[in-house]
Structure formats: C-alpha cells, structure tokens
Design brief:
The complex is a heterodimer of chains A (517) and B (310).
Chain A: E1 13-23, E2 29-39, E3 43-47, H1 54-61, E4 69-74, E5 77-78, H2 84-89, E6 92-95, H3 107-112, H4 125-139, H5 154-167, E7 172-176, H6 184-199, E8 203-208, H7 211-217, E9 220-225, E10 228-234, H8 240-248, E11 266-276, E12 282-292, E13 295-300, H9 307-314, E14 320-321, E15 324-327, E16 330-331, E17 345-348, H10 352-356, H11 363-367, E18 378-379, E19 382-383, H12 385-398, H13 415-427, E20 433-437, H14 445-460, E21 464-468, H15 472-478, E22 481-486, E23 489-494, H16 501-508
Parallel strand pairs in A: 3-8, 3-9, 6-7, 7-8, 13-21, 13-22, 17-20, 20-21
Antiparallel strand pairs in A: 1-2, 1-4, 4-5, 9-10, 11-12, 11-14, 11-15, 15-16, 18-19, 22-23
Helix pairs in contact in A: 13-14
Chain B: H1 3-36, H2 44-62, H3 65-89, H4 94-118, E1 132-133, H5 143-147, E2 149-150, H6 152-170, H7 172-182, H8 184-189, H9 194-220, H10 232-242, H11 247-269, H12 277-295
Antiparallel strand pairs in B: 1-2
Helix pairs in contact in B: 1-6, 1-9, 1-10, 1-11, 2-3, 2-4, 2-9, 2-10, 3-4, 3-9, 6-7, 7-9, 10-11, 11-12
The chains are: A alpha/beta (517), B mainly alpha (310).
C-alpha cells in the first residue's frame, strides 16, 4: 500500500475513502479506485446494482476485508482498521444484509458479544438488560433484551442490529440493503427512524439499489458501477431517471409495456390446498385460486408466509393435501404433481443456485437438464453433444446471455446470467402453466428488465402464469390480479392499481380483515 | 436373591458407577467445549490412549503420579495443537483428522509400549491413587461405600462439571465459544477472534481427554495395556450428544452409562450366568441408548457450525 498522509487533506468530511482498490482471488475486481466522501450528520446513499462493489467497499471500512491499496480518513485522521473490533472501537457500526446475530443467544448476549475480555464474569446482565430497555424506549425500538434471537421476527432482528450498533456508541452507521426483508410499512418506519437518528447527529451510509428509497431518505448519493464511482450528487438536485442511467450506464425503461389482454379459460385451478413445512407445521392453510389463459396472477407477501411451500408443493417437491386440482381441464391427483412438467407446466424456482441449476455443470448441460433424454439431445441412450451445443448457442444468442464459453461451469456466471439460463430453459418448453418464484431477486436491472419482458411475452402468447414475489413493485408491474398471502392464507384480492400499494402493504402485515373467498 | 446379598450387590454396583463414569466424563466435558466452538473431534479415543501412555510411562519412570498427570496434560496439549493446526488453520476435514488421531494413538502407544515395557521383564504395575475415605462420611452404611470412598480423580469431577458449566454459561469466554460454534461469521463481526477461540476450545478438549486416559492407568488399572481405552472415547462422543452439549447433561449421561457398565461387569462375574459375554459387553451401550431415547423429549440441536471450518 502506498503511503497515506497522517491527516485528511479535507477536514470537511467525517469519512474519506480514497482510491480504494480491492480484488479477489479468481480475478474479480470489486473496487477499482473508489473515492467516497461522507459529511457528518448526513444520510449518504451508496447506490449501485448487485456486484457494483458497494458491500465490499463498506466491508473494507468495517474491517472485514483488507483493501489492496487506498487510504481511509475518519474524523480527520488516517484510519487503520484490521478487523471489526477496530471498527467498533472507532464507533463505526454496520447492519449487515444477512444479520450477524447468533440465533441461540438472547438479544442482550448478542449485544455484549465480543465486548469484554474473556475472563470477565457475566454477573451484571441485569444492568445490561436495563440499559438496553432504556435505549429501546428512548429510540422507540421495542426490543426485549431477554428474548432469544431465534424467536424474533425479521423486522425485530433488524432493530436489534441497529440497537447493537447504537449500544456500542456508533456515530457512523452503515446499513446494507436494510429494506429488502421488510414490508412497505416497516420500511417506511425504518426510513423515518433513520432520519431521526441523522437529526441527532449520527452519520448514516445507506446501501441500496432501490431508487425510491434514495429519493426518500438521502441527503447525497454516490452511484457505483462495476467497482467505480459514476458520480456523487445531491439528492435534491437529481431524479430517479438520472440515477438509473448512472447506475446502469444506459437509458432504462422505467415502465414495462404491458398490453391489455382478455384472460381466456381457466388453465390451472386448485381448491383448499394445504402444505406442511419441513418442521411439520402447516405453512399453507387451505388456499384456493385459479389462473387463466393470458393472465398473470401475482402472489404478494413478505417472505416466509407460505409462498415457498406453495411453490414447492405445486412443483411436486413436497407433500400436500387438496380437495381438487385441475390443469387444462384434467383432474389431477397428488401423484400427477411429480409429472406436471410433462403435462405442460414450467417452473422458475426461487433459489436458482440450489434448485434451478446444477452449479458444477457446464452452461450447455444446464440448458438440457430437463430434456436431455429426448431427441435430438440423446439417441438410443447416448448424449449427442453436437446437438446440445448447437441448441445452447442458439439460446445464448436469443436470450443475450453473456458467457465466455458454453462448456464453462455455470457457477462462474453472474446471478443475472444464471437466471437468464433458467428462464430460457423453462420458457423454451412453451408451457401452458408457468410457475415463477422470485424471478428477479438479486439480479441486476438489465437482467431484471429482460426477465420481466419474457414473462409478459409468455402471457401474451397465451400461458397462464402464477408469479410469486416479495418485491411489490414487480408484483404491481406484471400482475393482472394480485393475491396477498399472510401466514399461509390469502388476505384478499386486489387489482394492480398503484394507488392500492398502501393497502397491499397492510394486508402483507396481516392487517386487513377481508379474507379471500 | 436374599435381601443382604442383594443390597451388597447394589452397593458395589453403585460404588463402581461413578468410577466407571469418570474417564468418560473427563473426555466428554472436554468435547463439549470443542463441539460448542464448532470443532468435532472424533479422535478422542486416540488422544485418550496417548494421554494414558504418557501418564503411565512418566509415573512409572519417576514414581510420581502427579508428574504422570502433568505429562498426560502436556501430551493432550500437543495433540490439540496438531489437531487444531489441521482442522482450524489448514481447514482440513475434521472427521478425517480425527480418524487419523485414533489410528495414530493406537499405533504409537502400542509400538512404544512394546518397545520399552512389554518384554522388559520389569514389574510393570504402578501404585495408583488410593481411595480417600472421607472421615465419618465414609462410615455411613451403604452411602459411605457408594459416595465417599473414591480416589482424588473421581472426586475432582465434582469440581470439573460446575466449573465447566460456569465457564460456558457465565463468562465472556463461554459466550464467545457458544457464538463461534453457532454463527462464526457473526462472532467475527462482533470482534471475536474465531480461530483463537477454536484453538483454545480444542486444547481444553484434548487435554481433558488425555486426563481421562490418564485416569485409566493412574487411578483405575495399575498399568498400561494396548488399547486400554476400549471405546470410551467413542462413548464420550455419544455422551456429548445425549447430554445436549451441556456439562451437566454429560455428567448425567456418563453416570447412566457407568451404571450399566458396572452392572454388566458384575453379571459377567456371576457363576451360572449363561448369557454370552459379548452380549453383556454390548449391554451398557444398548441400555444407555434406549433409556435416553425414551427420556429425551426436548430435542437439543447441535451447534450449527459444528464440523465446518471457518
């Protein structure tokens, strides 16, 4: 690392990260000369797509990674950080996207974890509880210090994370995509709370890829793309369109073109579907719905309210009970569920890496996962590699998938390109009934736009589509009808009218008293 | 059976119970620390053997049992350092390294024993730790024999278990151990040195296992024989699981095993018993398993990061 001056040249900023470079084994260059300046007491958004280098940059600041080169100045002085302990000592707190809480410990134990020398006897936990209660009241966080973290909801766990940072006296707080796991109301609440903290003088760095949040909460925003800074702007002097262009590097269609269609006959219908989860608890508690030709039925809801089990059951991957199920007029039994994919159903699963793809296999092999037994890909029990390769090449150009070589392991592709492979494979079967679960989670804007267009194209071509997504914006952009799921039941049906987002948010939190049918 | 012989039988069985449980308990308590920190050490059997041999040879050469015990602890620490080097620093598969320790323990102690003792023609027995008859208490009928006529290493378990429990649940270090075994990344983010915590936990584990092995030669049998540990290291592994990864649980389970072990030894010794001895030897394992399957209602989960290098 080159020599850094002992003091920051510019004392205006509480934090100055200068020319940060970081690459990982395997050649990924996450940060390529990033300079970030943050003012004291502001909410500063770090905006960028997945893989832009936001989280890596903040992990460097928090001592989790060591930069290859670059200098960090904090409160005017050169900052040497080797591990998170140093960061905490310098009063930097971070709320990670995947919470860093130990589920089997209590809230208080999690908060004091790592704060004492090893020989310290923990006979003062009552005082710690008191202090946590006092802070919780002061900030209106509603945290019970004696509860086990594993018994808390996701929203509560996030409040524990924030309280943990405040307890350690943080005056710079980093939040990594904090709203990804929250309902719209919870997000709203969080953003207001952050504004209060900033008003008290706390400096906040807010990592996100959601433009509305940037506009709503931040004072300034720094946009990253491919490990470089595109620019830093005052939020009041910009607009979502400009931010999107900076983030993606080209004009982005903010609105999808959705044509008006007339739904046809019922393709898929189920009555009183019940599914148990892995622990044997009823996760889907008797739901009924039907999906028509040329129609997208959206299922909204916070993750973990039975959507996963619903999708797995329809894909024949876990056991379920139902009164009646029909596909294309045919009455189905439980045993047919395993064969649905042979009866005209396609499935884009929630977790592409574990269910949609076989990561150590090549791109070409993943393209024919469901059809390798059929002509022309195999003949008399032998695979015909030339046909498989040719097919894969045509799919790659058709779906504009960026891949070096079709023999490459699919694990090496970016999330967006992996998802395109899954979507290409499933849509190429021209399904009558398409089950799509979280189709754009964790992929970049470009790929998201593309995947959504493909789903709409299938609808216009006559497929009946069941879309499950925790992303409300996606549900509203694609669906023709919306069902809101909460604790295994449908709370009600709404049309995709943007004016109803508020109401859907309440239903997602279980607060609407209108049960479906 | 008449009343008096029946009582005597019960008395001798129960008196042996605690003694039988002791070596297993030492190893199990140590393994609780190791596993709570996320390191599964299936090499207990081999490390107990090494501890037993280190204790025996030192005590035999110097005539000092305490030096023997110290030698056992040192051998345990060396084993622990090697084990942690491979499993924590190099991130090798813990099962493979543990299995290697079992084979090395068997081989090296067998080799050294034959080379230096087996055919030397010397008298090979040690003067073991003698039972300390506690004044007054030991003369209480029945209870005196069962509880108050044991040697120092057996009594020491009464200190070991609460001490282990205190460290694990009431100190900052114990909190770190439990966090590291459950969610090492969270512990790391909270500023805990995951590798150091795992090293120390593994060292606690292996030194206690070595003490368990030393018990067999210093306070149970009076000499070393090849394979003297006879599976106790593996039982200790099971004891940790059935004890729900807690020191008190490990104690209860060890005692349960001890009862059945003492019982089968006595049944074997009875005349006119026609049950094949192989079956009797299997009895403690089978009975412990059945009792615990019947008793355990609340299923305790293993530490989540158990067996996964960080």
């Amino acid at each position: 690392m080159e020599e850094c001056a002992p003091e920051s040249a510019d004392q205006e900023f509480i934090l100055r990260m200068e020319n940060i470079y970081k690459s990982f084994p395997g050649g990924v260059q996450a940060n390529r000369g990033i300079t970030l300046e943050v003012r004291s007491g502001e909410i500063h958004c770090l905006l960028g797509e997945n893989g832009a280098g936001k989280t890596v940059l903040m992990s460097i600041l928090y001592g989790l990674y060591k930069p290859d080169s670059g200098c960090i100045y904090y409160k005017g002085k050169k900052l040497d950080i080797h591990n998170p302990k140093d960061a905490i000592r310098h009063r930097i707190g971070m709320v990670h996207q995947h919470f860093m809480l130990v589920p089997t410990l209590t809230v208080a134990e999690n908060i004091v974890l790592g704060q004492y020398p090893p020989w310290k006897v923990l006979n003062h936990m009552e005082e710690v509880h008191e202090r946590i209660r006092a802070m919780s009241d002061e900030f209106g966080l509603d945290v019970d210090p004696t509860k086990l973290v594993q018994d808390l909801s996701v929203g509560e766990q996030q409040r524990v994370e924030i309280l943990k940072a405040l307890y350690h006296g943080a005056d710079l707080l980093i939040l990594d995509e904090p709203t990804a796991v929250l309902t719209p109301q919870e997000s709203e609440h969080l953003l207001k709370f952050l504004r209060q903290l900033a008003d008290r003088g706390l400096t906040i760095i807010f990592i996100t890829h959601k433009l509305e949040e940037v506009m709503e909460v931040s004072d300034r925003v720094t946009v990253l793309r491919d490990g470089r800074v595109v620019g830093t702007v005052n939020t009041s002097e910009t607009n979502p369109r400009e931010l999107a262009r900076m983030m993606v590097g080209r004009e982005v269609l903010m609105e999808l073109k959705k044509s008006q269609t007339q739904p046809g006959k019922v393709i898929f219908a189920v009555r009183d579907l019940r599914v148990r989860d892995a622990r044997g608890l009823e996760a889907v508690k008797g739901v009924s719905f039907e999906v028509r030709e040329r129609e997208i039925l959206g299922i909204a809801g916070v993750s973990g309210n039975g959507q996963t089990e619903l999708a797995l059951a329809l894909a024949g991957l876990i056991d379920c009970e139902f009164d009646e199920m029909r596909l294309d007029g045919q009455i189905l039994t439980k045993h047919d569920l395993h064969r649905l994919h042979r009866m005209g159903m396609a499935h884009v699963p929630e977790d592409r890496q574990r269910m949609g793809l076989i990561l150590p296999f090549s791109v070409a092999e993943n393209f024919v996962l469901k059809s390798y037994r059929d002509e022309p890909f195999s003949k008399r029990g032998f695979l015909r590699f030339e046909a498989i390769r040719e097919y894969s090449r045509s799919q790659i150009s058709k779906f504009n998938i960026r891949v070096g070589d079709i023999e490459e392991e699919i694990a090496h592709l970016s999330g967006g390109n992996q998802q395109k492979v899954v979507v290409a494979r499933e849509l190429d079967r021209h399904p009558r009934f398409l089950l799509v679960n979280q189709p754009t989670r964790g992929i970049d804007i470009g790929a998201t736009e593309f995947v959504r267009q493909q789903i709409l194209a299938q609808r216009d071509a006559g497929a009946a589509i069941l879309l499950i997504s925790a992303d409300l914006e996606e549900i509203f952009a694609l669906s023709d009808r919306i069902l809101v799921m909460f604790e295994g039941r449908f709370m009600g049906e709404v049309p995709p009218d943007p004016a109803l987002i508020e109401q859907v948010g309440l239903m997602m939190a279980g607060k609407a008293a209108v049960p479906a049918d | 059976m008449e009343l008096l012989p029946a009582l005597l039988f019960l008395q001798s069985t129960l008196a042996a119970t605690w003694r039988m449980a002791t070596p297993i308990l030492y190893a199990a308590i140590g393994e609780v620390f190791s596993e709570r920190a996320g390191v599964l050490n299936i090499g207990l059997e081999g490390i107990m053997l090494i501890g037993a041999f280190a204790a025996y040879s030192t005590a035999f050469e110097t005539g000092n049992l305490v030096l023997g015990l110290i030698a056992a602890v040192l051998s345990g620490l060396v084993c622990g350092l090697v084990f942690a080097l491979f499993t924590v620093t190099i991130k090798a598969n813990q099962i493979v390294v543990g299995a290697a320790f079992n084979m090395i323990g068997m081989g090296i102690t067998g080799f050294l024993y034959r080379a230096f003792y087996a055919e030397s023609g010397k008298v090979l027995s040690l003067k073991t730790f003698l039972p300390l008859d506690l004044p007054f208490l030991s003369s209480i009928p029945f209870l005196g024999e069962v509880l108050f006529r044991h040697n120092i290493m057996v009594y020491a378990t009464l200190l070991l278990v609460p001490a282990a429990s205190f460290v694990l649940y009431k100190t900052a270090f114990g909190l770190s151990i439990r966090a590291v075994g459950e969610h090492p990344k969270a512990a790391d983010t909270a500023g805990i040195n995951v590798h150091r915590t795992r090293y120390i936990s593994v060292l606690i584990g292996t030194s206690l296992a070595a003490i368990g092995g030393a018990f067999l030669v210093l306070a149970y049998a009076d000499q070393f024989v090849e394979g003297i540990v006879t599976g106790r290291g593996f039982i200790a592994l099971a004891v940790v699981v059935f004890g729900g990864w807690s020191p008190w649980g490990a104690m209860g389970t060890s005692l349960l095993f001890g009862v059945f072990y003492a019982l089968q030894l006595r049944i074997q010794a009875m005349p006119n018993v026609l049950i094949p001895y192989q079956f009797l030897q299997a009895l403690p394992y089978l009975a412990t398993l059945l009792v615990l399957v019947g008793l355990t209602k609340r299923r305790v989960r293993a530490p989540k990061a158990l067996g996964i290098p960080y």
